[in-house]
From TrEMBL:
Species for this entry: Danaus chrysippus (African queen)
Protein name as annotated: (African queen) hypothetical protein
Single GO MF annotation: chitin binding
Entries under PANTHER family matching the protein: FI18007P1-RELATED (PTHR22933), FI18455P1-RELATED (PTHR22933:SF42)
SMART domains xrefs: ChtBD2
Length: 166
């Protein structure tokens, strides 16, 4: 009896008419030859003046060893070409990993990739503490109330620092 009722309901509704034809793959008119990467416009010598990784390599970097969460951290084992965003652990022990384009390195003072000759990677770890500076890193919460509630103040030298803790 239930099957008859269900059949009646199904027959009552018509299916939507098919509106779109599936796209058909068209092969390109001519194949593009694979050329080696052109670094002629990048100042310096690749592999000498700056690293040339094509993907983020596996290193010993761990978000467990950095002072502030959330934060952005240069990976000095990659010559600062790679950097990590450490937050709540969603991306694993290294956080979300990113790679600066060839010829650029992650500048820990600017939290951005910059030309290799503008970045002193040897001082990156000294600048990890800049992640605590509220002028460069503000609360990321969707609710302003959470930003006020989850703040902690502490003093470094003569500077009072306020950071997000949640």
């Amino acid at each position: 009896m239930k099957a008859d009722r269900d059949k009646h309901i199904i027959e009552k509704y018509e299916s939507y008419p098919f509106r779109y034809e599936q796209a058909v793959y068209k092969k390109p008119l001519r194949e593009h030859e694979k050329k080696p990467q052109d670094l002629s416009n990048v100042p310096g010598v690749p592999g000498v003046d700056f690293p040339i990784y094509h993907s983020v390599p596996e290193t010993s970097f761990s978000c467990a060893h950095v002072p502030i969460h959330p934060g952005m951290y240069a990976n000095v084992e990659t010559g600062c070409q790679a950097y990590h965003v450490c937050h709540d652990g969603r991306e694993g022990h290294q956080g979300a990993s990113f790679l600066c384009t060839n010829g650029t390195l992650f500048d820990q003072t600017k939290f951005a990739c910059d030309w290799w000759y503008n970045v002193d990677c040897s001082k990156a770890i000294e600048h990890y503490k800049l992640n605590a500076d509220p002028r460069t890193h503000t609360c990321q919460s969707r609710s302003p109330k959470n930003c006020k509630k989850n703040r902690m103040a502490f003093t470094i030298g003569s500077h009072m620092i306020s950071v997000s803790v949640g």
